[in-house]
Design a protein that fits this description.
- The protein is of the alpha+beta class and 117 residues long.
- The protein has one domain: Cyclin-dependent kinase, regulatory subunit (Cyclin-Dependent Kinase Subunit Type 2, 2-Layer Sandwich).
- Helix content is 17%, strand content 23%.
- The chain has helices at 21-28, 54-59, 77-82; strands spanning 35-36, 40-41, 45-51, 65-66, 71-72, 92-96, 103-109.
- Strands 1, 2, 3, 6 and 7 form a five-stranded antiparallel β-sheet that branches. Strands 4-5 form a two-stranded antiparallel sheet.
- The longest helix is centred in the N-terminal third of the chain and has 8 residues, at 21-28.
- It starts with 20 loop residues before the first helix and ends in an 8-residue tail after the last strand.
Length: 117
């Protein structure tokens, strides 16, 4: 039974919106500057935050941005992986740190095991 991750789906695109080849080429220069925090946890989830270079935010397509909040939308896995964020399976983008919109917050269930193929 899937764990309820409490992701606000209204803050995502209705479905994943892949990057075009041109958009991906622009973002490639920032990939080596993405910073990943150490993992931390509570009794239910493990967490980490991913810090994008501030200049990268300007290069991310408008379709990934929430104009009402002035931040990124919550990204589907296909979208955040397309930006160059690399992490193991099971992570969900659940929040943007609004005071610092270049910091994306991720979580996954403790002891996550990917589905068997």
């Amino acid at each position: 039974m899937p764990i309820n991750m409490n992701i606000d789906m209204s803050r995502r695109n209705p479905s994943p919106r892949p990057l075009s080849d041109d958009e991906r080429a622009i973002l490639d220069e920032f990939i080596d500057s993405i910073h990943y925090s150490a993992r931390y946890s509570d009794s239910e989830f493990e967490y980490r935050h991913v810090q994008l270079p501030k200049a990268m935010l300007k290069a991310i397509p408008k379709a990934y941005k929430d104009s009402s909040q002035g931040t990124l939308k919550l990204l589907w896995e296909e979208e955040w992986r397309g930006l160059g964020i690399t992490q193991s399976l099971g992570w969900e983008h659940y929040e943007v740190h609004e005071p610092e919109p270049h910091i994306l917050l991720f979580k996954r269930p403790l002891n996550y095991q990917p589905p068997a193929m």
